[in-house]
Amino acid sequence: MKRRSFLKKTSLGAGLLTAGSFPLAAFDKPEVIKLTILHTNDVHSRIEAFPMDGGRMQGLGGAAKRATLLEQIRKVEKHTLLLDAGDIFQGTPYFNYFGGELEFKLMSAMKYDVATIGNHDFDAGIDGLAKQLPKAKFSFVNCNYDLSDTILHDKVKPYKIFRKGDLKIGVLGVGIELEGLVPENLYQKTRYLDPIAKANQYAALLKHDEKCDYVICLSHLGYKYKEDKISDIALAKQSEDIDLILGGHTHTFLEQPDQIRNKKDRPVIINQVGWAGIMLGRLDVYFERNFKDKCVTCNNIFIGQSVESNK
Amino acid sequence: MSAKQYLFFLPVLLLFACTKVLHLAETKPANYRIDADAEITEDPAIKEMIQPYKKQLDAEMNKVIGEVALTLSKAKPESTLGNWTADAIQQKCTDYYQQPIDFSIVNYGGLRIPNVRKGSISKGKVFELMPFDNMLVVLHLDGQTLLDFFDHMASNGGWPISRGVTYQIAGEKAKKILVNGKSIDPQKMYKIGMSDYIANGGDRCVFFKDKKRDQLGKLFRDALLEYVEEQTAKQQLLSAAIEGRVTLAE
């Protein structure tokens, strides 16, 4: 009896060994998984392209063209995520008249996955934001606003996890200090908490407890400041488990994504694409499935052209 | 070796045989710019979603909300458009604040069009005049800071100010400043209506940044719209004159 069971196990073990060793032959061509991350920030109710009025921005942007571009990308790429780093609201009469309803409807039609809250998203008050939320078929994440005493207490989560094929991606959100920036009667009982401490806490949870392969921080802190103020650069430097920061607030058109070393001396990539939907950000992230100490395609720098015009 | 021992080694064998991990290999950026002449069509479904809102909005923006008696123009040191805007803001700040304030100011650069022509004025015109989403605040200023601010306005060639205040520009300095007929008392506190852009230190008003403020929770533009609508309801034409509020010293 004992011997029979032993034989059974060994043959199973041997079988698995054979199967397991099979990919060794394919070492030159490791399994690579591609994730295409698409993002916007500070669209500011720019539903239509800028009017053709001779201004500097004329003809730029517009949701209808962005939607076409997104569909073209999705036809080619298997795994995509579409994210927004806040300040969806305020900037054209579309917001003043319809309170953000059309912004959310269009983003839902474009299949946005998740967004974070910008300071201007409070411009119709926290009640105004809550009122439009049912029109958003995507989620909102923020981990440094304590919303427990507000109408949004069960509407905004600190993070959201997405599965794309075998990939597990965690997305968390951080927002800017509202005091002095937004009238208190608009943000009401929203309490601002330290974005670095909170981002690190939830990034660690996503990386280590939830075993996410990749952690994205949607940030409305701003890219960088002359004065000593928390920014995406400061956050990146003091972070441990964030792979990518997609920023907003400062309306920064980055020539190409920035790369900062974190506390563990690992690279964190920061990207921000100006404002008004003039640009659509895109980062193609490649993952290689291989043995722990083997990574053929690993290249800790990003390459390629940063800005691709659609002309 | 017992079966038990083999059972122990089996997971170890499996681990060596087929455990693979995901490595973050590479990140390639490829941001897109959505240009006017980009060879990219507009998504018809999105356009269709926008259409009813656009139609409604265009109708709203073209709506006539008042009548302008004479063309209001923007100029330095004092202008009709500047005086009109400053008076409107003073009126609305007082309404929202529900108590008197000393006066209101508008930064010259904050007026975004050179003039508002005589005749009917549309809602869209007010959006053109004030496209920014600045909020109104009442700033509490001591007389000394206020004196510095008058110098700042003077060095900028004169900023619009509401009725009841006069000052002269002498080079980079303001002189003969009178607030409701009285000179500024450096020890006294004053309440000034303005946009949060200025109160936050915009247009180099750094001396405002740490001052006490009351948020009025209203947009500068909405205040102008309300003011126009109220004037129209009272059957009054929109008008302003050069009254010698800001003058150049001889």
Walk me through the structure.
With 311 residues, chain A is of the alpha/beta class. Chain A has a single domain (3-21, 28-310), classed as Purple Acid Phosphatase, chain A, domain 2, CATH 3.60.21.10. Chain A has helices at residues 2-21, 63-76, 93-98, 101-109, 125-132, 184-187, 195-209, 232-237; strands spanning 31-40, 80-84, 114-115, 139-140, 145-146, 159-164, 167-174, 191-192, 214-219, 244-246, 258-261, 267-271, 279-290, 307-309. Chain A has a 6-stranded mixed β-sheet. In chain A, strands 4-3-2-1-13 form a 5-stranded mixed β-sheet, with helices on one face. The longest helix of chain A is centred in the first third of the chain and has 20 residues, at 2-21. Chain A is globular and about 55 Å long. The N and C termini of chain A lie far apart (74 Å). The model of chain A is unreliable at 1-26 and 301-311 (pLDDT under 50). Chain B has one domain (60-248): 5'-nucleotidase,  domain 2. Chain B has a 4-stranded mixed β-sheet. In chain B, strand 9 (165-170) and strand 10 form a beta hairpin. Chain B is extended. The termini of chain B are far apart. Classes of the chains: A alpha/beta (311), B alpha+beta (250). Chains A and B meet through helix 1, helix 2, helix 3, helix 4 and helix 6 of A and helix 1, strand 1, strand 2, helix 2 and strand 12 of B. Strand 13 of chain A pairs antiparallel with strand 1 (21-29) of chain B.
